[in-house]
Structures
1.
Amino acid sequence: MSHSFHEALDGFDPAQILVDGCPECEDRGRNLPVALAHIDDQRFAAAWKRAYDLYALDSPSVGRVSDAEKPLLEVLWGIQCVLQRFGVPLNGTPPQRTVATAVLLPAIRIAEATTCECGCCMYLRQAHQQLERVANVCPPREAA
């Protein structure tokens, strides 16, 4: 499966993280562990802020939210709310370290330490399994 040319799709908004009508984006929207495992730090920060703006601020600047990205934004908002209880400020900006060390790993540890069956904790457990698979299959980046 591959991405479609997003700009040519109906309802495209450049702020969208996952775009309706793109088979790859729609698949990632249905499989959040895969989406989280393949998102780069820049897109993650944009999605983090988009989720904050949508759910905390109800901001019109968010624009049209695609059906493909809505589950991702819901989970990222849930993670922000959980991390707030552990001292991470709720301000629309992910902590200034890499995604894996700043957000996903602490959130995964929290989710794995609980028997909670909410959607966010279940997605985090699945994301952990997917991240482990990616780490075992994908070659590491070359040092800059």
2.
Amino acid sequence: MIDKQDRLRRGLNRLVQKRCTTIFIGALDSIEQKFGRLLWGIDKDLRDLTERERVFLELWKSLRKEILDKGNNQTKSLLKELELFELSMKQFSYSVSVDQEYSDE
């Protein structure tokens, strides 16, 4: 049987994961919208890209992967840190209290 803390923690973890993912996916989308057409021919077929666009496309793929990896790592770290807290819920917001000493070292 799942206790109240586990239910709250699972709910908060889902919420945190969703919000964090939205942050970095939204940022990537904004970059693609602003620079994709100009730099790497986002609307073109791969066969029709210029050499310059191919270079920028490869740079974009590398940068995108790096951003996703860093975002996912930070999300995992945040979820791990949340395990240090006891949770209680008031309506639709989460109230968090520390159940042990926490240091950011």
3.
Amino acid sequence: MSTIKQERGAKILAKYKAIEIATGKTISLKRILKEAGYSLSTQKQGVRITKNQGFREELAKYETDFVPMMEKLMAKTLKALDEKDFNETTFRDARDLLDSLNKNIRLLKDLSTENLAMKAEIDLDNMTLEDAERIINEQLGKGK
């Protein structure tokens, strides 16, 4: 069972995730918890709050809205990377977007956002698009 603050916090987090997807503007978890009515000391423990079962249950209610939207954006970004010759800055922005989408999809699906088994260094200079797609799919649990 979730509390009123958990319900409010999950709803606000989902709203800001939609804004982040649309604009790229990130809102801090501390700000989200403040807006939900959490005390200052609790705001400083944001990760602990979001890992709470009640909060996760509330956040799961928004999965159906945001995960498909993020997966479509991820596919569109991968397609654009495959079809265009990006300069280094644009490629870095696209890579950062893919990283953020991957993390947020995993968060909304209640999956780990840190894969301890994937701590090997990745040579981005010599990585092909197929390598990047394989890694992303593995991170999303879509196979190897």
4.
Amino acid sequence: MIIWVISIAAVLVIFLFTLIYIKLVQIRNAELSEGLVKADEERKGLHKQVKSGVLLGQILKNEGFCTDEDILKALDKQRLGDKRLLGEILCDIGVLTEEDLAKALEIQHKK
């Protein structure tokens, strides 16, 4: 009887941790899609370089260099283990030129 109760309790604990994990993943995905580059900047420690708080992904989108889909595709590559910066990935997949990246970075540092 005690083993049965312990087994049920263990299953419930695992179930609850699974639900919490799923919710955290959903929150993280929502933050990534809203912030576009925020997760990359935090992971790389680059948030200190962006004094204005303007995200590179937002600048790229506002200037018409990239779409949300392009940026999310690059972020997906990072989530899958690509260690390169967002701009490097976007240039590599042909969405962004190095000149456009340089312009966006200049805008970011001016703000």
